[in-house]
Amino acid sequence: MKTIGIEIESNEAIIAVLEQDEGGNLSQVTKECVKLDIGDSMNSGHVKQFRDQIDATFNAISPDKISSLSRNISGPFASSPLTFKIEGIIQLYQKVTVELVSSKTVKAFLKKKENEIAPKFKYQTNALNLAFYLIKQHSNE
């Protein structure tokens, strides 16, 4: 099973990929862990290029599950409108449903089950934790 965890920050989608083999062993697929930048979000060419990058990346990975960390819609810690645009583009991927998961849900889960996979880069931590959550939730179904 392969899962993709996504964290959206500023104008980037941080993508982390975990794979679990039939023996239950987990590994981070580092060559597929990337940051994708939307560029100029007011330029439709850049937006379409970002969509194409997302689709190509997901197609190359061929994941079983994809999830993105949800963000605050309102309040003092509300996310920027650009992040919601990025989220919408990601949700348009047609081969696998992209689910949204609260960071609070992931944090609560990690208190019970620690992620044994360390991220290659610190910026991947939240996306990797989300991918770990997805794999463990699936194995408990």
TrEMBL record:
Entries under Pfam families matching the protein: DUF3010
Superkingdom of the source species: Bacteria
InterPro entries attached to this UniProt entry: DUF3010
Name of the molecule in the record: DUF3010 family protein
Source organism phylogeny: Bacteria, Pseudomonadati, Bacteroidota, Cytophagia, Cytophagales
